[in-house]
Structure of L-histidine N(Alpha)-methyltransferase:
Amino acid sequence: MACFRTPERRAIPARWLYDQAGSELFEAITELPEYYPTRTETALLEQRCPDVAEITGKGGCVVEFGSGSSTKTPHLLRAVAPVSYVPIDISGDFLRQSAEALASDFPAINVLPLEGDFMGDLVLPEGAAGQRRLGFFPGSTIGNMVPRTSVDLLRSMRNTLGTGAYLLIGIDRIKSPDVLVPAYDDSAGVTAEFNYNLLRRINSELDGTIPVQSFRHEARWNDNYARIEMHLEALNDIAFEVAGEGFTMAKGETIHTENSHKYGPRDARLMLRAGGWVTVAEWTDPKDWFALILAEA
Ligand code: AVJ
């Protein structure tokens, strides 16, 4: 018998990692030698966007979910040459900045930024009406969600984009923990800083007294859930306050701060189908570490 049960643990939703400092630390992570996803996906997009355009056709409307700094987008826009581009992001300032930059680099494309939470229902701007839709969701951001939530998101993307739409999504593959764990626990300690930043943020924004130096960063492969988990482990028995409330942690106890789910080829296609999307093409790097999947609603 295999028993997969693990005890209940403390956890904080991963979205709180991404304040200004956290977003900058994540940018630094994407350049680390151990963090393969960004450079692998960028190389795939450089090579494969023309193949994507051949299947989807040129023109139409490209809708990017969680566009952030939109660094991967030019490859797609160049190949697809859409009529309009709708970047969606929750951070309005960031969104407007990168939308302006893209609009001046691609004067022929109608750039229509949409400020909002892509996890909820969205109404696309008027300027995108009547155009064939291509959703773009790179970065294996879907890996942050537990499968139940990722399927909800895929369904709502299908509702937003409509039947006949395409979705181009980047999904990180299951691979050896010898590769995965260092990608989330780098030798320069940048990912550790990214994790500690959450505690610093709690201290400054919620009147916390968390002793940050009493925690250790941990990246753990959870094989049953097929995900990397980031934790903060208490190095000794500690007590602290957050927003006037007292907390204690015993030595060795952890706070679970992020999940990064990984998917095998059929896992990814099943998840897409559960959300209403059928895979029509799939590209990977020579090591099969990262997949770029084109699916149809
Ligand atoms: C932004 C969610 C894709 O899971 O690889 C990287 C976040 N956390 N290192 C990932 C992350 C620590 C990243 N995603």
Notes: The CA atoms of residues 25 and 194 lie 6 Å apart.
